[in-house]
Specification:
543 residues, mainly beta, 33 strands, globular
């Protein structure tokens, strides 16, 4: 059985409407068509994979959720900025209490951005167990036109659930057993080897949307002897940028235009490779490549190549279409993404040696109920690592990855400009790479930082709310590589009204709905809030 790739050639209707999805989120058992034992997973309406969600700019996405799990759940529309609807951002104990087991909840999300996004669970790393799908928001007046579209969604599927994997990540000697059961590669929700061909008509132009819902490895996409013209990155339109290959880290998305050949005398292949130089070499896994067909004429021979294109994209050379110049920063933040140890030798991830822990009150409710104290970072708890931002200021983040571990860093509620990249051990600045002064820097919501490298990004804090910044390698976020921005909390108190349905989910679970991270009102009493010591740099059990 082969799974056909989604092909869209119809016109997009420019009339705002409600796009209603009814999702009963529950446990299913599946191996996703791979040569693996079936395992406990999370599906929707008893099915796998989840349905792709399609809408048009200006629509409202209505997600009616029934939680049939035995634990809380929540949904995050990744890349959607949620202007004015911070309470629907879906982050457990940041913007909501999660949807209680056995209850119903509705997300109402205005879709004011066109582009390629995805929806995934944001409670207890449930995306790792399958709670994720693509969200496409079409623009009837898109700058770029195509005759048809194809969608490629990439995933890695591991034989163990996240809860089974977590002890292997955090216990002393954390790599022991992690790769004993390696993942398989999925394309559009199923075993990559079941993926069908794509059909090209001579002279036509095709938009191909590439989405990485990967939990760890990188993916590359290329078509032999065809140029890929990048026109969108993470939902942001770009100036045309030509390349032979697109590399995606977890959570990244890219749209390319591909113009078909003028003749049909040859067929070609597309290639999808799952890999990572930070991963152990496992034959047939890291790397693994699926070779699919690009068919012009079923009877024609195939174009032959000796090597498959590979390589990084130069993000500093890609420009955003809106021509916005590099922002001038008002506020500088240094974030060291690194691992460390507790006294017992267990391993965790952190920003600046602080491992994220859930507060006792959702952070959005702390911002709304603590008055003037909402502008104090400690209100949100020491283990949330919250930075309070002033409305409209330009934030520059130095994202530092000094270990050999990479980190795809995702910012909720915003996109950032990519300003500079380099190596953490470059003391002379010889290998410092900056965006050209005349360029409109690329904007995106997720940036991949390889191990022992850094990046400088800038964004405008123009979206009042509580916003998460975290690594999108699921293992790393689950180990605490998360922090928060409280953007303009004083403005939130004047403009944000949390729906009672959000508060009711807290009440159902006995979660406090006011006060600081410890549930206290007034003063600096946060004694009951999680407050772990800073991580140790050296393993205490190494001696």
């Amino acid at each position: 059985m082969r799974f056909s790739l989604g092909l869209l050639c119809s016109l997009v209707v420019a009339q705002a409407k409600d796009v209603v999805e009814n999702w009963d989120i529950g446990f299913v058992t599946t191996n996703r068509g791979l040569d693996q034992p079936a395992r406990k997973s999370i599906g929707v309406n008893g099915q796998f994979p989840l349905p792709v969600v399609e809408a048009v700019l200006g629509d409202t996405l209505i997600l009616n959720v029934r939680n049939s799990l035995d634990v809380p759940t929540s949904l995050h529309a990744h890349g959607i900025h949620q202007f004015g609807t911070n309470y629907y951002d879906g982050v457990y104990m940041v913007t909501e209490c999660g949807v209680a087991p056995g209850s119903n909840f509705t997300y109402e999300i205005p879709l004011m951005q066109a582009g390629t996004y995805w929806i995934h669970g944001h409670t207890s790393e449930q995306n790792y167990d399958g709670l994720q799908t693509t969200l496409i928001v079409y623009n009837p007046n898109d700058t770029y036109s195509a005759d048809c579209e194809y969608l490629f969604v990439f995933e890695d599927w591991w034989p163990l659930t996240f809860m089974e994997t977590y002890p292997l990540l955090t216990e002393p000697n954390p790599t022991a057993g992690l790769f004993d059961s390696p993942p398989g590669m999925l394309i559009n929700g199923a075993n990559a080897n079941l993926t069908g061909p794509i059909d090209f008509v001579a002279g036509n132009t095709y938009r191909i949307r590439l989405v990485s819902m990967s939990s760890f490895p990188l993916f590359e996409f290329t078509i032999d002897d065809h140029e890929l013209q990048i026109i969108e990155v993470d939902g942001v339109a770009t100036k045309p940028y030509n390349t032979s290959v697109v590399r995606l880290a977890p959570a990244e998305r890219t749209s390319v235009l591909v113009t078909a050949k003028e003749t049909t005398t040859l067929n070609y292949q597309y290639h999808v490779t799952m890999f990572g130089d930070f991963l152990p070499a496992i034959p047939g896994v890291f790397p693994s490549t699926y070779n699919g067909s690009v068919v012009y004429d079923a009877d024609a021979p195939f174009f032959e190549v000796e090597t498959i294109a590979t390589g990084f994209l130069d993000e500093l050379a890609i420009e955003s279409l809106d021509d916005e110049p590099a922002l001038v920063p008002d506020h500088h933040i240094y974030l060291n993404a690194t691992s460390g140890f507790h006294e017992d030798g267990s391993t965790f991830e952190s920003f600046n040696q602080i491992t994220y822990k859930y507060p006792l009150v959702p952070s959005i409710l702390s911002a709304l109920t603590t008055g003037d104290m909402a502008t104090s970072p400690i209100t949100y708890g020491p283990d949330t690592n919250t930075h309070v931002l002033k409305y409209g200021e330009i934030i520059e983040m130095l994202l530092w990855s000094p270990t050999n571990l990479p980190h795809p860093i995702h910012l909720h509620g915003h996109v950032f400009q990519i300003i500079e990249k380099g190596f953490t051990n470059d003391t002379t600045g010889q290998y410092r790479n900056q965006v050209p002064a005349t360029n409109a820097p690329l904007k995106r919501d997720t940036i991949f930082i390889p191990g022992e490298e850094y990046a400088i990004v800038r964004f405008r804090a123009n979206n009042p709310g509580l916003w998460s910044l975290h690594c999108h390698i699921t293992w790393h976020s689950g180990m605490g590589l998360i922090m928060l921005f409280a953007s303009a909390p004083e403005m939130m108190q004047e403009s944000v009204q949390v729906p009672d349905a959000v508060l009711e989910q807290c009440r159902l679970q006995g979660i406090l709905t006011s006060g600081n991270a410890a549930g206290n009102n007034g003063g600096f009493n946060y004694a009951a809030a999680p407050n772990d010591p800073y991580l140790l740099v050296e393993d205490p059990l190494s001696n």
